[in-house]
């Protein structure tokens, strides 16, 4: 029996009942969509919660030793940061203030609050496009820059009013501030609605209860040619235990690990992926089991004519592969539309990636093959002796 004839048999069996095939493909597409959405939310969680970290211009990062996540961070004495200048490997240091505050524009108040970042306008610690063109605005008392990538569901009126030339006054906590300009920054996250950037002076004017001698994050730039790992180990050995030094990349990983292992929302999305996979297995298993049951007499005739059991297994897994491919395509297409819808509704980073598309495709194939493996025992019931 030539290979193409096996494929033809698998295809003919699936298309014999077209309505059943359509229902099967819809079920597989539904499972693929669930996996796509859960993985997108999981990646969006990691990306949005580390967006500020990834934009920090530093080789090393100094934080409080108790820090688990920046969104629930601790402040520490800034003297530990400026002590870094005593090390020959260090070129410069830059403090960052970070605090979540309530935010209100007119009658609009963001539900999750907004992140207020205090920086030195002359040495911005973040990678922000065209920041130099608006940095001078921060030198004016209580003038801040608003992140245009914030949740537009909450702040679309603010952005539109600013772009029409209106003077935008907002309330940060119980203090008033003036929006001086818009920037493209980190955007909204699962923990907050967006960001504003202020000078360190304005930051403490807006949050007077905080000590001016403390900082949230200390950024350290090493001299050119310095070995980063060696410098990290040398400096860390001379620091007290109440502060922690790490590379900028490890700072991002540290934040991500919190949302992976400690935050319940990351665990829920992982459970969602597993449940979606299980749903797909059940759907495909039911379809394949029904196909086998309907064609048991046909298989018995073929067995009587000398076809081996492995031939029927190959047909079964070819059916599983066909179902996986045909079910994946509409699942992928619908997921693209859902990504765009969720992004517009929440401002979270929801976009298709090549690696995720491949991963879900492989999971869909695995899902269908798992169902085939579960269903294969039914093939053994195709006994020629019982038929005749």
List the helices and strands and how they pair.
Elements: H1 3-16, H2 18-49, H3 51-54, E1 60-64, E2 76-77, H4 79-82, E3 90-101, E4 103-105, E5 108-109, E6 114-119, E7 143-147, H5 152-163, E8 169-172, E9 175-183, E10 195-199, H6 200-206, E11 214-215, E12 217-222, H7 228-236, E13 243-247, H8 248-262, H9 264-294, H10 296-304, H11 309-346, H12 354-375, H13 384-387
Helix pairs in contact: 1-11, 2-8, 2-9, 2-11, 2-12, 8-9, 9-12, 11-12
Summed up, the helix count is: 13
Strand order of the largest sheet: 5-4-8-9-7-10-6-3-12-1-13
User: Roughly how many Å apart are the termini?
Assistant: 24 Å
Question: Structural class from helices and strands?
Answer: alpha+beta
Written as H for each helix and E for each strand, in order along the chain, the element string is HHHEEHEEEEEHEEEHEEHEHHHHHH
As a percent range, the share of helical residues equals 40-55%
**C-alpha Rg, in Å?**
29 Å
Unreliable segments (pLDDT under 50, ≥5 consecutive)?
1-6
For the secondary structure, the number of strands is 13
- Averaged pLDDT, please? 84
Strand content: 15-25%
* Assembly category: single chain
Shape summary: elongated
Tally of separate domains: 2
């Amino acid at each position: 029996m030539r290979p193409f004839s096996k494929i033809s048999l698998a295809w003919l069996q699936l298309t014999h009942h077209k309505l059943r095939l359509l229902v099967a493909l819809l079920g597989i597409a539904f499972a693929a969509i669930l996996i796509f959405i859960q993985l997108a939310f999981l990646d969006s969680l990691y990306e949005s919660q580390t967006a500020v970290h990834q934009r920090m211009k530093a080789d090393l990062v100094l934080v409080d030793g108790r820090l688990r996540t920046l969104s629930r961070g601790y402040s520490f004495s800034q003297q530990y940061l400026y002590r870094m200048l005593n090390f020959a490997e260090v070129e410069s240091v830059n403090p960052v203030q970070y605090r979540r505050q309530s935010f209100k524009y007119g009658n609009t108040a963001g539900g999750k609050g907004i992140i207020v970042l205090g920086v030195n306008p002359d040495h911005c610690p973040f990678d922000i496009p065209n920041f130099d063109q608006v940095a001078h605005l921060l030198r004016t008392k209580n003038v801040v820059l608003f992140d245009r990538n914030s949740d537009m569901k909450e702040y679309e009126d603010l952005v539109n009013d600013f772009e029409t030339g209106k003077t935008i006054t907002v309330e940060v906590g119980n203090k008033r501030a003036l929006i001086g300009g818009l920037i493209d920054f980190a955007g909204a996250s699962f923990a907050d609605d967006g960001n504003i950037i202020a000078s360190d002076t304005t930051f403490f004017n807006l949050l007077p209860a905080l000590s001016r001698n403390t900082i949230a994050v200390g950024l350290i730039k090493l001299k050119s040619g310095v070995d980063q790992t060696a410098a990290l180990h040398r400096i860390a050995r001379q620091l007290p235990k109440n502060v922690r030094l790490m590379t900028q990349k490890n700072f991002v990983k540290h934040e991500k690990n919190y949302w992976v292992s400690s935050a319940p929302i990351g665990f829920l999305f992982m459970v969602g992926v597993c449940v979606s996979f299980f749903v797909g297995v059940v759907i495909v298993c039911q379809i394949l089991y029904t196909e086998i049951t309907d064609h048991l007499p046909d298989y018995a005739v073929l067995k009587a004519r000398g076809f081996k059991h492995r031939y029927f297994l190959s047909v079964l897994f070819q059916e599983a592969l066909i179902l996986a491919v045909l079910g994946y395509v509409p699942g992928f297409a619908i997921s693209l539309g859902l990504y765009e819808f969720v992004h517009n509704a929440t401002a979270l980073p929801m976009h298709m990636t090549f690696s995720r598309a491949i991963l879900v495709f492989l999971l869909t194939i695995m899902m269908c093959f798992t169902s085939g493996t579960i269903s294969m025992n039914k093939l053994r019931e195709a006994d020629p002796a019982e038929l005749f």
